[in-house]
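User: Okay, second chain of the day. Same drill as before: sequence in, structure tokens out.
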Amino acid sequence: MKSPSSGSITRRLIILLTVSTTLFWLAGALASSGILRQELNASSDGALVETARRLLPLTVDSLEDRQDARDVREVHHFREAHERGLAYQVRDKSDRLLLKSDDAPANSFDPSAWSGFSEVGGFRVYSLGDAQSGLTIQVAEPMARRDQALLSNTLMLLLPLLLLIPLSIAGIWLAVRRGLAPLTTLQQEISARSSANLSAIAVDGLPAELTPIAGALNHLIDRVRLALDAERQFAANSAHELRTPIAGALAQTQRLIETARDEQARADGRKIEATLRRLSDLAEKLMQLARADAGMAASEAPVEILPVLHLVLGDAALRTRPPREVRLTVAPGAEKVSARINVDALGIALRNLIDNALSHSPPNSTVEVELSAAGSVIIRNGGPAIAPEALGRLRHRFERGATRAQGSGLGLAIVDAMMKQAGGKLLLRSPAAGRSDGFEAELQLEGL
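Assistant: Same drill. Structure tokens below.
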């Protein structure tokens, strides 16, 4: 059972790096906000101190002639619409309020304060007293004003993140893609390996992190190549060594059948002859399979399809008993069509498909062979339709459909392997195109 994918490394790195970078930026912005708060408070406190020191002498001079006044003098700002930040009050040593700005409250900010800072009623208050006159001035700033200034400056720090986050995603994506390019190259090299291509993976130019992986893969490829070579050599040698004794045994059996006088002996001999023929066919198929596994189908040299097709059809007519009708149709312009495939591989593939069609079609039916102008060879035969699930398994080795015909179950596996090596395709259909029954095999060859 195939396990589900755990996701893309590139996507994971982009998400992790973007989230971590954003968190670092936020942490930096919050730290900057804390530092900014301290700086704003220090600056505002300094403004309160400076204002108090400048206003106290002026208020002392202006209030010397009004010590007995009972009403509170209120100083108005010049412009009503002007933003009011600092408010102040002046009181005497008996805590009586003498003077205040129009935006200051009617009650004293902090009656007990003589000098220094305090926070009362939402105000940051600085008190400064004059020992000679007994007057005290209190300059206050609303805390909300400081909070608003801090919020505005913090937002100015955070707003660039709205632009920087998408830009950072793009930058991180480019950096990750560039950084993982060797990994992509290694992936492509591994994907190119198959039973027909077991060459070593080049380790030159790979990063130090990937070199051990490539080395381990090359070691594994060497082991697989040795195992496959041993298997192919065993299959080829076994099939080759079996041909001679099988042929000898078949010849002896045929002679026994001719010389035997007893009908029962001749019948038994014919059974032995049929078994030896099946064994001979199996040995031939094993040799073809070994050649297919060795990658013999790939070729850069073009080969004309029609002459090979005529040769295979002629050989099939000589071998088929009783004779069967095979109808060849050549599309206009297909007489000289060529394909990039080894000529022996093309002959083996066509022979297996035509033999299958002759073996599995009804005795009196016609096998149709068609060569298209695009270089495709289509072979159709009659017979019951094959179920879709069974049709998909016919490419497997030693897989045979529901048929009484003799066979090894290797023919279609051999053809499929050779088509993959040559860059072509083997397509199987049942029922055949335009019919309600039958079977159809199509070779789509890579043309010039």
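Residues 9-63 form the longest helix (55 residues).

User: Thanks, on to the next one.
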